[in-house]
Amino acid sequence: MSVRSSKSSHWLLGFVISGTLLASGCWRSSERVVVYCAQDRHAAERSFAEFEKETGLSIAPKYDTEANKSVALVAELQLEATRPRADVHWNNEILGTIRLARAGIYQPYESPATVSYPSWSRGPKHLFQAFAERARVIIVNTKLVPPAERPQSMFDLIDPKWRGKMAMAKPQFGTTATHAACLFEVLGPETAANYFRALKANGMQIVAGNKPVAVGVGEGRFALGWTDTDDAILELKAGKPVALIFPDREGHPEHPRLGTLFIPNTVAIVAGSPNLAGARKLVDYLLRPSTETMLSGMGAYQIPVNPLAESRLPPEIVTRKEVTAMAVDFERAADLWESTQAFLREEFAR
User: Fold this and answer.
1) What is the distance between the alpha carbons of residues 344 and 196, in angstroms, rounded to a whole number?
2) Cα separation of 25 and 2, whole Å?
3) Of the CATH numbers 3.40.190.10, 3.10.580.10, 3.40.47.10, 3.20.20.70, which one belongs to the domain with range 29-133+264-296?
């Protein structure tokens, strides 16, 4: 055999072996689980580290950025639908999850860890599971806003006395976008649109994300703003002069479904997951009571959904059992996503 033919044979053998490995799923290590994660890195990393220590599997996370929170990973999963790279999607809000489930991006998995979760938290056909939620709150600077003047309802923010003194994250992204779509569902499109127009007319400042809102209020650059409980409590723990207000916590006389909005995280297995066994192990782990207990503390401050989880929340964070929770139909809010996004782009992206 010539040297050339020998090299060709070796190349062909290598090609056949590579193809066999790819076909058998062994080319990408079965010891690695790829997670697309919209949860804040500091909140997710300890969970991943504990999972790796317990199982021997490694986590390869892909995070998004504060500016395009949750939306970018949803779009990426849609683009990769025919050739998925991710095994698990840990989303930090639920409406994008519902839209992906409807688009066939996830595969069903009934984790044994979901038995103790409330029925509302389970996705249709076991395509996803909600867990570890946050509330949308108004954060106020206590030096700039005395107790008697602090807003108690979301509608108080359209009072002219707050003109130019408020901030919120870009409303097309993250939990602010989810909040908007939920308000369109609960209040009706006309009332919700008028509310956002009134916020804009009252000089609402738009910043990159919920964390910059909380930091800006803590530093006194804004008197108050819309943010999430986890971002707000970090400013309080840092010694900043802030307080959390759970808006419409007693309900609203004119809008019976209004209350404080709680937005859960979700976890789902991607259809065509390259490491299905590892994906299931991670989902089981994230949905254990001990994981939600850990996420309620450790600087993450996520509110447990599983009633078996022990809460380590600071007293400033209340749960949906302690206030009037917004009575939102998340499926219907997902129906309104595109029209809500079109409105928000028209009003706030120009």
Assistant:
1) 9
2) 35
3) 3.40.190.10
Q: What pTM, to 2 d.p., does this model score? A: 0.89
As given in the structure block, the two tokens for residue 345 are 């782009």
3-state SS assignment for residue 282: helix
- Stretch (H or E) spanning 36: strand 32-37
Cα separation, 41 vs 37, whole angstroms = 8
Per-residue pLDDT tens digits of the chain, which is 350 residues long: 444 444 444 444 443 433 433 333 444 557 899 999 999 898 899 999 999 999 999 999 999 865 565 678 999 999 999 999 999 999 999 999 999 999 999 999 999 999 999 999 999 999 999 999 999 999 999 999 999 999 999 999 999 999 999 999 999 999 999 999 999 999 999 999 999 999 999 999 999 999 999 999 999 999 999 999 999 999 999 999 999 999 999 999 999 999 999 999 999 999 999 999 999 999 999 999 999 999 999 889 999 999 999 999 999 999 999 999 999 999 999 999 999 999 999 999 86
Name the CATH superfamily for 134-261+330-348.
Periplasmic binding protein-like II (3.40.190.10)
Q: Pairing state of beta strands 205-207 and 166-169?
A: parallel
